[in-house]
Structures are given as structure tokens and as C-alpha cells.
Write the C-alpha cells for this entry.
Amino acid sequence: MPEQERHGRDSPAGGCLRGARDGALGRPAPGAWRKGKLRDLLAQGGGMSLRRAFTMVEMLLATLLLGILTTFAVLTFDAVTKAWQVSGEYMDKNQRADYALRQVVSGLRSMYYPHDGKQDARYGFVLQDNGEGEDAKDSDVIEWSKTGPALVGTESAVADTVHRVQVMVLEEGNSDYREPIAVTGLYARQCPDAALRPDDPEADYSFANADLYQPVLVADGIVGFNCRVLASNEKTQSKNDESLFEDEWAQSNSVPYKVELTFRVEDPDGRRYRTHTAPLMRIVRLPVYEQSQDGAAIPGMASEKDAAAAGARRGGGGVLRGGRP
């Protein structure tokens, strides 16, 4: 090739002319393939790095969300399980308290009082008021004479005879009796009727003898007990007579017209009330109220006037035993 022609091809002007010609013909410039390939490789490598980084962020977010959802699920399951357990225990306590309340109501409705037209302190209703009955320490104690198996059981020796019962709430660890109290709850004591007790003036066969009659558990879960009485039926004209109930009952030789029983059931969560106890209440009309009044009609007499006359003939004249009016 002539020197002049080779010089013209290698000169800058020659290069420009070849570039223009190749561009016009659609041919790639020398080295353009290598530059494009490198650019494509760089682009692919950068895209792969960006794609991998974005996938890692997604995995981290998914893991975080899964952890949060799992935590919420575990906490919710734990709360539901605890609520179910607490509700089950609360319902069990309510059922036991309702059973105990029905036992006491049945015992009051089977109350015994001699129907002979005179009052007798041995068969009267006794109420020991200790407070509002929020807990065992300020719970009331009631005592009366009855017949039947309520509170004593069908296999008890006194179930078929007249006997006296005492109902109260005792706290765990109480050591006032022959054996310490194992669990807080409603307890009952029983003793034979005064006419059936041994004739021993030196021995005490009443409930005052704490070593003789051991309390028997009626139902646990009851932490308080309050009793109020409606003394007579003279003030029962109003349909709502709950406000007439009183906390004290001094006439231990007779029976009140009605009694109001309130049991306090332990409620640890305090869900329904501000305190940690829930009340169960019953009002019981005592069937022997009329015959426990002085001068009540004796069976076979025509009227209460005849009973009053019989009392006057006995020297009672409307005066109770011991000279009490």
C-alpha cells in the first residue's frame, strides 16, 4: 500500500471519514462491541446487587411483621386462657355458694318452734352481728332450731330429730375450735335439741363449748356473710320492704318475720364490683313466725284470744319467761 494512502487512513481525518461511513452503513465502530458488552455486564451486575439488597429488606420486614404477629397471637392466647380459667373458677365458686345458700334457705324453711302458745328461748332465732360481712372477721353468726337433713346431711344422727344449727364464715387458720380451720368458707355446727341433751348441770352442751361441736365445711370460696332481719309483718305494707331490715335481733326467744342473707363470694379480678367480692342475696320468709309470738294460737283453739286466755290461766299474762315483758 502506498505510504500516502496508509498515512491518510491512519490520520484523524481518515478516522472521522471511516466513522461517518460506518455509521451511514449501520456498522459498529471499532471497539464498540467490547465497550457495549462491558456496559451490559456492569448494568447486569448492578441490577443483581440492587435486587439482592431489596430482597433482603423484604425478608427483614417480613420477619419483623411475623414476630409482631406471633407475639400478639401468644399474648392474646395467654389472655384468653387466663380469662377462661378465672371465669371457670369464678363460676365454680358461684355454684358452690349457690348450693350453700340453698342449704341455708332450706334449713331456715325447716325451722322448728314449739306450737304451744308460749315463747321459749331454747328455740329462738339468734343473730350475732359482727359487721357488714365483707370478710370472715366481720361476718355474722346465726343460730336456730330445725328438723331435716339440710346443713347436716341425711346420714347425720340428728337429721330425724329436732336439733340446733349454727352458721358462720370462718377464715383459714382459725384455731378457736378443736381442730384448726383448713380453708376459708361457710361452716355449720350442729348440736342436739335441749330436751335431748344429757342432764348434767356441770357440763355445757351448747355452742359456747367450742371443743364439743366441730364446724363442718358447707362450701369454700365464701369469704363473708351478713344477715339482717325484718322483725315483724306490721310494716310490710310497702312493696319494697328491704329498707326495713335491721342488723340486730335481740328477741332470742322468738323468730323474725323475714331474714335477708348475703354471701360474699371471692372475685379476684373484681370484674363486676369495686371490691374483690361479689354478693349473693336471698330473702326468706320464716314459716314459724306466727307461732313464735307470745299468745299465738295453739292447734285446736278457735282463735288467738283463746290462746291468750290460756296463757293468762298459765300465769303468763303476756309476760315472757324470766319476767321479761
